[in-house]
Amino acid sequence: MQGLENIWWVPILPLIGAVMNGLLGYRMGKGWTTFWALGTTGLSFLIALAAFINLLGMQPGARIFEKVLFVWIQAGSFTAEAGIQIDPLSGVFMLIVTGVGFLIHVYSVGYMGHEDGYPRFFCYLNLFMFSMLLLVLGNNFLLMFIGWEGVGLCSYLLIGYYYQKDSAADAGKKAFVMNRIGDFGFLLAIMWIFWVIGSIDYTTVFAAAPHHEGLLRVTKYGPMVVTCITLLLFLGATGKSAQIPLYTWLPDAMEGPTPVSALIHAATMVTAGVYMVARCNVLFNMAPTTMIVVAAVGAVTAIFAATMGLYQNDIKRVLAYSTVSQLGYMFLACGVGAYVAAVFHVMTHAFFKACLFLGSGSVIHGMSGEQDMRQMGGLAKKMPYTHMTFFISTLAIAGIPIFAGFFSKDEILLSAYMGHTPGHIFFWILATIAAFVTAFYMFRLYYMTFSGQLRAQDHHVRDHVHESPFVMTVPLMILAFLATVGGFLGLPSALAPHVLADFLAPVLNPAAAGGHGAAAEGHHLSWQMEAGFMAFSVAVAALGIFTARYFYEVRPEAAEDLAKKEGPIHTVYVTIQNKYYVDEIYDFIFTNPIVAFSRRALWKFFDVKIVDGTVNGVADFIMDLGGLIRGTQTGLVRNYATVMALGCLILVWAWIKLW
Amino acid sequence: MIMMNNYLLLSAALFVIGAVGVLIRRNLIVVMMCIELMLNAANLNFITFANYHHKMSGHVFVFMVIAVAAAEAAVGLAVALALFRNRETVDVDEVDSMKG
Question: ipTM of the predicted structure?
Answer without folding.
Answer: 0.85
